[in-house]
């Protein structure tokens, strides 16, 4: 099942993605206004299909983040072997965990503003785990049972701000720095999370092309490790790390950072394509 949050006729609606990718079926908002409501209720496919109306063109909606109000947004750094190698970083002995704030969420095809404070904005294509039931201290072999599904994320990173201090948050959680979507895809339809092709294009040029098989810590291990410390709740997000091919991993003379007008597109397995366009921050007003 493929779910999306969209704006249609001025309001937020939950939508079911059709197989052709060109249309969506809007769900009765009185029953399920968005994916957050589905996750909270644990609603199944039959219930959602029964509440859905006739198809509408996908090209005519405005997309919102695939999850709108996550309680927690976890991110994992340096979680692909070849990405650690390209950045000259050692392979972590345990997951490198940081976070983003909800202000960072952005929808498919949303324009993200490049903050004036950075001169080094980078992309990071990522598989994102979406928790579907409350779990605490779960074992790795049981962890994926707590996952509702998966979506695509772009862990945008202002590298100059990220490495200004020993903590990464400053460069990771500006407004719009976590594009998410277009769909939330159920685990059964998405398939094996450790066998997903992951690709990113910048202005049509392929920059990242790898597989989630290169992860150091797989999705089950990450859910288990995080649940040792936090109680995971429906709607919590786990950005699972990015493969090689980021701008930061290039030689300094080849590091041309994201600029206004640039467009990234990310494709992962059966999850769809997440597109983001970038714009310059307008000068601050006087007075």
UniProtKB/TrEMBL annotation:
The keyword Lyase applies. Residues 72-278 form the Fumarylacetoacetase-like C-terminal domain. Keywords: Lyase, Metal-binding. It comes from the Bacteria. InterPro entries: FAH, Fumarylacetoacetase-like_C, Fumarylacetoacetase_C_sf. GO terms for biological process: carboxylic acid metabolic process. Pfam families: FAA_hydrolase (PF01557). GO terms for molecular function: isomerase activity; metal ion binding; ureidoglycolate lyase activity. This is Ureidoglycolate lyase.
């Amino acid at each position: 099942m493929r779910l999306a949050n969209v704006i249609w006729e001025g309001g937020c609606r939950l939508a079911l993605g059709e197989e052709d990718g060109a249309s969506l079926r809007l769900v009765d908002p009185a029953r399920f206004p968005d994916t957050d409501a589905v996750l909270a209720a644990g609603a199944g496919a039959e219930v959602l299909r029964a509440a859905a109306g006739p198809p509408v063109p996908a090209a005519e909606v405005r997309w919102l983040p695939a999850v709108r109000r996550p309680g927690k947004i976890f991110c994992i750094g340096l979680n692909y072997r070849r990405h650690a190698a390209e950045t000259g970083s050692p392979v972590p002995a345990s997951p490198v965990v940081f976070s983003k704030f909800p202000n960072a969420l952005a929808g498919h095809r949303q324009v993200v503003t490049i903050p004036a404070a950075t001169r080094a904005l980078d992309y990071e294509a990522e598989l994102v785990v979406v928790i579907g039931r409350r779990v605490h201290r779960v074992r790795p072999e049981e962890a994926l049972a707590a996952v509702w599904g998966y979506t695509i994320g772009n862990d945008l990173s202002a590298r100059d701000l990220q490495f200004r201090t020993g903590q990464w948050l400053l460069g990771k959680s500006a407004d719009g720095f976590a594009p998410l979507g277009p769909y939330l895809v159920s685990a059964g339809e998405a398939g094996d999370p450790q066998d997903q092709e992951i690709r990113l294009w910048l202005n049509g040029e392929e920059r990242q092309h790898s597989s989630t098989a290169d992860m150091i810590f797989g999705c089950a291990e990450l859910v288990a490790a995080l649940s040792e410390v936090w109680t995971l709740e429906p709607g919590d997000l786990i950005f699972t790390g990015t493969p090689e091919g980021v701008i930061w991993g290039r030689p300094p003379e080849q590091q041309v950072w994201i600029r206004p007008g640039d467009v990234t597109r990310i494709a992962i397995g059966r999850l769809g394509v997440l597109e983001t366009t970038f714009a310059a921050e307008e000068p601050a007003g006087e007075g």
